[in-house]
């Protein structure tokens, strides 16, 4: 997945620094969620004066441009969402096509949107080590939230995945653990929408899909470290981690131990 330009179904995130003075956003074909990420800044738009603080959110629908004046330099996190992602999610939720749109809003406070934006930025700064599945999960969560979170009910909503569905998905994950798994492909394996798979999988396993995959990769890496003489860098790639330091971070988080400690303990 390219992170330089939005694809038709993935979010894109970048940090935007402006020096102060006249600031503008050109119209683009994607929806944009701008989160103020720096020190407070005063400004004005037409006759309206404002003060942005960390976490203030602007939502600019696709094709929207904006211009304003800021009294000092500022930093924002800008998340771009292709309209196709919002349309697909609305369809999966059983919403009418006209619901797959956003209204322009300024200085919104929304902890859920903010949390997803910071998570995307952390992933960007780390070099996107968690791959497509994690980005897909965040994108779907953001789209569902923006659409109001009203899901269409599918079969057995309170019981999670059926046993055959869960077996198909987990078997697919095990077989492709060293690859770049995607939420769309796992949903296809389960025969569900992506938004519904996220909910039902967590009900069945107690973990979000991407977190379950991290645990399975850590478990595979632990086995390889204990039972083989493979270098840690080889173990990381064989287990589906993007690099050795990514494996070490996940192993410390899940097991409370480094790869070296796991190997010595084995």
Q: Quick gist of this model?
A:
This is AraC family transcriptional regulator. Keywords: DNA-binding, Transcription, Transcription regulation. This protein has helices at 83-92, 111-125, 131-146, 163-175, 183-190, 194-205, 209-227, 232-238, 244-255, 259-265, and strands at residues 12-18, 21-25, 31-36, 41-45, 48-52, 57-60, 66-70, 74-81, 105-108.
Strand residue percentage: 15-25%
Radius of gyration from CA coordinates: 21 Å
Task: Kindly report the oligomeric state of this protein.
Answer: single chain
Regions with little confidence, pLDDT below 50 for 5+ residues:
1-7, 150-157
Instruction: Return the average pLDDT rounded to an integer.
Output: 91
Number of strands: 9
Major sheet: arrangement of strands: 1-8-3-6-9
Helix and strand composition category:
alpha+beta
Layout of SSEs?
Elements: E1 12-18, E2 21-25, E3 31-36, E4 41-45, E5 48-52, E6 57-60, E7 66-70, E8 74-81, H1 83-92, E9 105-108, H2 111-125, H3 131-146, H4 163-175, H5 183-190, H6 194-205, H7 209-227, H8 232-238, H9 244-255, H10 259-265
Antiparallel strand pairs: 1-8, 2-7, 3-6, 3-8, 4-5, 4-7, 6-9
Helix pairs in contact: 1-3, 2-3, 4-5, 5-6, 7-9, 7-10
């Amino acid at each position: 997945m390219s992170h330089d330009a939005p694809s038709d179904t993935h979010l894109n995130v970048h940090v935007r620094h402006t020096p102060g003075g006249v600031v503008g956003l050109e119209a683009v074909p994607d929806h944009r969620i701008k989160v103020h990420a720096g020190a407070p800044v005063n400004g004005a738009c037409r006759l309206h004066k404002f003060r942005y603080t960390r976490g203030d959110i602007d939502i600019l629908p696709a094709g929207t441009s904006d211009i304003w004046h800021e009294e000092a330099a500022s930093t924002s996190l800008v998340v771009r969402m292709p309209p196709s992602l919002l349309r697909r999610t609305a369809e999966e939720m059983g919403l009418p096509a006209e619901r797959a749109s956003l209204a322009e809003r300024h200085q919104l406070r929304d902890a859920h949107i903010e949390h997803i934006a910071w998570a995307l930025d952390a992933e960007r700064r780390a070099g996107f080590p968690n791959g497509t599945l994690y980005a897909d999960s965040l994108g779907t969560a953001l789209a569902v939230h923006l659409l109001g979170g009203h899901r269409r009910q599918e079969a057995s909503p309170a019981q999670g995945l059926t046993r055959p569905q869960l077996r198909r998905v987990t078997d697919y994950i095990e077989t492709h653990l060293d690859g770049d798994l995607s939420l769309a492909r796992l949903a296809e394996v389960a025969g569900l929408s992506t938004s519904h798979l996220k909910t039902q999988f967590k009900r069945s396993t107690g973990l979000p899909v991407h977190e379950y995959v991290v645990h399975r990769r850590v478990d595979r890496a632990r086995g390889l470290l204990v039972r083989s003489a493979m270098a840690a860098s080889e173990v990381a790639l064989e287990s589906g981690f993007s690099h050795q330091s990514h494996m070490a971070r996940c192993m410390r988080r899940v097991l409370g131990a480094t790869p070296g400690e796991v190997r010595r303990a084995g």
